User: Fold this.
Amino acid sequence: MAGERSLWGQIGWWQLAAIIVCNKLSILTTYAPIVTGHLPVSRDAWLAGLVGPLPALFLALAICALYARRPGTSGLYQWLAASWPRWVAVPVQFGVGLLFLHWAAVTLRLFSHVFTAAFYEQTPEMVFSVVFAAVALAAVIQGLVVIARLAELGAALTVLGVAVLVLGLLPRADWGQMRPWLAGGWDPVFLHALTPMGVFGEASWAMVLAVPYLRHPKEGVKAALVALGLASVVVTLGALILLTTLGPEVVTLASLPALLATRMVRVSIVLERLDWLLILLWMSSMGVKVAVLLFGAAWGFYSALPVLRFRYWACLAAVGCVVGARFLLPRDLDVARFFLPSHFLPQALPLEVLPVLLLILGLLAHRRAARSA
Assistant:
């Protein structure tokens, strides 16, 4: 594992920021959990976009601080192998890889559902699952550097797409229905912020995987600040424009509020609807997110059992992701309820928090071993 970093090269802090942006805005734009994570939707739900990133920022700073304690470590899995006996490290590495694989399958299921429900109703979801997994696998085999380069384009298209939607919907916004501000106090805002906290928290597993590959690891803090700040601004504006355009009551009832709002945008006679914009936006960021998750899964399996080459573990992980997406969230009702805090947080938090705890435990074990020596 010592040669993994040199094998896959290094990335810039802006590329890590782009990866985090792709992870956040793909789901936030598609399902708008910034406002629908709690029902009924409150007129002040848009403020949750400003509160949601705070736990993620704390985790990101903790990850950067932990890696700074042991410079030269090429990631979580090597950290575990160097800190614990092999009989402990191997099952833990494999288990973390399974967590990445599970979340990749969940993400693939959600993305495929969007394309089937919103655009191509006659096409089986399995087709989209296979396509997304194949595209992600092609990037994973080439390494994290290629994923980071794709993220640069994906993040730019995603932010540009949301900006066009917001500008296109401004003439239709009814700001009067947002008054009075904070009529119900801050309690509804914090209830709406629970799911966004979990969604923004996905930055933690991206940081765990990518910070050791930064050309200057200390710039991980800069990447986290820029990415989370940009994502927070974009999703807050997006949530605000959804609420002022559709109203809290319609957003509460809509399964895909972002799509409904997009169909109200009229830029010209030729482009009466911007469905193509959401398709481009989703496609550009979806592949990056699935690729990063598959990378984490394959890296974990390879670290635990290097009997197979990394690319073969990546292929097995992609197959497992497609199969898992077929059986996870089997009903459309499960997908509709997924972003409620009671459903989303129990599934999202293990992958967001456990790697950080493992880094802390590994650091403590390393220090104890150093003192004993």
In short: The chain has a mean pLDDT of 80.
